[in-house]
Specification:
Elements (H helix, E strand, L loop, with lengths): L11 E3 L2 E7 L5 E7 L13 E6 L7 E11 L2 E11 L2 E6 L10 E10 L2 E8 L4 E8 L6 E7 L2 E2 L2 E2 L7 E5 L15 E6 L2 E6 L9 E5 L5 H8 L14
């Protein structure tokens, strides 16, 4: 991968999302691959979600599917889930999938027509697959590949140290997404960068997302880079 960009090259910032999002079109199909990261121990509880989705960037609707990588009550925690807002406003755990660090995941969301959408998640390592078809009426205004600090009881959680995650976006509306740095965004809170993506890989179209420890050299490099500050105004996303 190309490595972490200066945040001045990225197009957006939020309190809880990092990764890439396409906007300005109409989206009805998205796919993506990633390898489940191993989380490091934390003093308190910490959380991270990895997912693909449609909507949510500039509206309150969202259809998404992915994996969770947390450190809760002194133990790592991994599971798969799906969510549809506003009908199912919290993650629905997929109990039939036994997710573990290092598992290669493949996700797909597709509109079947007449308000019906199919969500599919494959654990290629364990040869497990989950598929569900649900009603969804969102506008399809954005498509995303995201590493998130999820909301816990209505508040953005402490981000788990997930290390480095590699996304391979696959397709959007059946075609390569052709991501550019301006489609990317980073996570920040209280002027601290928490999670930041790399530039798109010209060979795979994918990208890395880096956890940024508060005292890391990478964060200081980003903070001190010319032209970085002030960053785009962060906004809380679903």
């Amino acid at each position: 991968m190309d490595g972490a960009l200066s945040v001045s090259d990225l197009g957006w910032a939020t309190l809880n999302w990092s990764g890439y999002a396409l906007t300005g079109g109409h989206y009805w199909d998205i796919a993506g691959n990633w390898v489940v990261p191993a989380v490091s121990p934390s003093r308190g509880n910490s959380y991270s979600s990895t997912w693909i989705g449609i909507d949510g960037f500039s509206n309150d609707d969202l259809i998404q599917i992915g994996t969770e990588q947390n450190y809760v009550d002194g133990r790592p925690q991994y599971f798969a889930w799906w969510e549809i807002r506003p009908v199912h406003p919290t993650e629905i755990v997929i109990p039939s999938m036994a997710v573990a660090p290092g598992d290669a995941m493949e996700a797909h969301i597709h509109r079947d027509g007449h308000g019906r959408w199919t969500l599919t998640l494959d654990d290629l390592t364990e040869n497990e697959q989950f598929t569900i078809t649900q009603s969804y009426t969102g506008p399809g205004a954005s498509a995303e590949w995201i590493q998130e600090a999820p909301e816990i009881r209505g508040h953005v959680s402490t981000l788990a140290d997930y290390g480095t995650l590699t996304f391979v976006p696959g397709t959007v509306n059946g075609h390569p997404p052709h991501l550019t740095p301006s489609d990317g965004g980073y996570m920040m809170d209280d002027n601290l960068i928490l999670s930041v993506p790399s530039g798109p890989n010209p060979e795979t179209g994918g990208f890395d997302v880096f956890y940024v420890a508060p005292t890391s050299h990478r964060e200081q490099t980003l903070l001190d880079a010319p032209g970085v500050w002030p960053p785009p105004a962060p906004r809380l996303e679903p």
